[in-house]
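Q: Could you write out the predicted structure for this multi-component system? I'm mainly interested in how the pieces pack against one another.
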Amino acid sequence: MNVLIALLIGFLYAVSVYLLLRRSIVKLVIGILFLSYATNLMLFFAGGLTETSPAFVMASEAQSAVMTSDSLPQALILTALVIGFGVAAFSMVLIYRFYKETGTVDLDDLSDIEKL
Amino acid sequence: MLFLPILIPLISIILLIASRHRLKLQQWLSIVSVLAQLIIALTIFFNLSETGHLVAQAGSWPAPYGITFVADYTSAILLIAVSLIAVAAIIYSIGFVDQVRQRGGLFVLFQGLLTGVYGSLLTGDIFNLYVWFEVMVISSFVLITLGAEKQQLRASVKYLVMNLIGSMLFVAAIGLLYSQLGTLNMADIAYKLRSEAIPPLVNSAIMLFFIAFGIKAAVFPFFFWLPASYPTPPIAITAFFGATLTKVGVYVMLRFYSLFAQLDAPFWQPVIFVVAGLTMVFGVLMAASSYDIRKILSFHIISQIGYMLMGIGLFSVIGLAGAIFFIVHNMFSKTATFMAGGLIYLYKGTYDLKKLGWVYKTKPFLAFLFLIPALSLAGIPPTPGFFGKFFLLYAGFEGAHWTITIVALVVSILTLFSMVKIWNEAMWKPEVESANLSVKSVRPAAWVGTVIAVVFTLLLGLTVGFTYDYFAQAGQQLIDPMNYIKAVLPELIAK
């Protein structure tokens, strides 16, 4: 299981790097999304994978529950996800405005018109 | 009390949004709010305990479990410096920035940025630091696109992507560190690293931190976003960015080096020296080849980040005091030069040195206002730039780090060269007969803001005899973080 998750995270990072290096600005934003998903998964993984153990138990069950999983990384992911959503929303508005202003989605067009 | 620097800007954000149709009220609210922040920052500074710490636990949860806020000399000094320069920057932007942008939420975003900066300076929790960084960076995203001119949109794409990659590396590092040590409290991590065998993945996490904050602070291989994005928004915003964003990145490096990385100093010291040297050299060379005031000054931000890193690498009391002093000096001097450059733009309608001329003849006081912070950046006594460089070079020679010290000296001369270039081209050269450039009206607030920033610069240089002790104490605290750990985790250490 651990190896599978590790491979999945690695694959997601690979996808995001590939998309970030593309010229299209839309793919760039999708790349950013994948980057944050990969990172969130990694954060989740930081607590260690424990199968069939809940994050919270009732007080009455506290004696019987031998193992609970670490709930802190889950709380952290929640925070990171919210921030990620905000940033994703902003970057989508940004690329829309970018497209409206410049009429292109190709990042390579940036360099030759960038004269200050 | 430690929560007040965050609460005050947050409350002002609410008030500013509520008064969004009344620009005058917004302007006064912003000024009152930053003055209140300044008073709070000073109160924190004078209330530090004998060991120089002030600790607050959010929600009274004891240290390793809750979120801790810590102030020591380093963060208190920077808190004061940020709130001082925020006063100047807000007054300046009232005079400089156009009405559309001011009504579009400029002041709200400034307060948002300040919230993030204060939070990053005070927090003692690694994940909380990430949250404050995001607060700061997202405010800056909106600030850099505010007005949505073509140039700004193009620049902000690069700015956004680089900063997001930095943030994600930061979160990944937090995940790695948590999986190895099981704690997020900075003092607790430092304590565990000192008392237990260091797990192997910790080094990867610290390297990821270095890259993440290297991107945020614009150090050598990661700085390309800065010159591409900083010159595009109105210069009042650039001036504020230059004083806050990259400097907070350097502050975090300082803190992390003191708490974590110094344990592995034989590896990190050469890395930091190489990065610092290359940052200085590349920044200053690119500045020397530019002909736009904003671009020259933006490249100098990079070059001067190199000096601060050099201070971290030296890691002696004088070196660290020099690094902190240099951060404060750079906040003031750099902002003041940006502001004076903005005034030149208001009168002449361009930032292009080839088109400028004769500012000295037509506006001698403006030339004077530019000269002081420019000489400070180059390091001429009695300006603070001289003392900052003096401390760093002294520490460099003392520690026998010859290469980096000589690089710093040479870069210093090149800095003087580009300041002289601006002076010659913009101030002394006969005016170029240029096609009617659109000259905007100059509101007095722009002058007031610039004068305030220049006065801060001068005062910092002239009072260094009185203030040096505090900087040295800050350096001492960073070298031996045991007191920091004890202040945050009293019970744990007592056992």
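A: Regarding packing and overall arrangement: The domain at 2-53+61-115 of chain A is CATH 1.10.287.3510 (Helix Hairpins).
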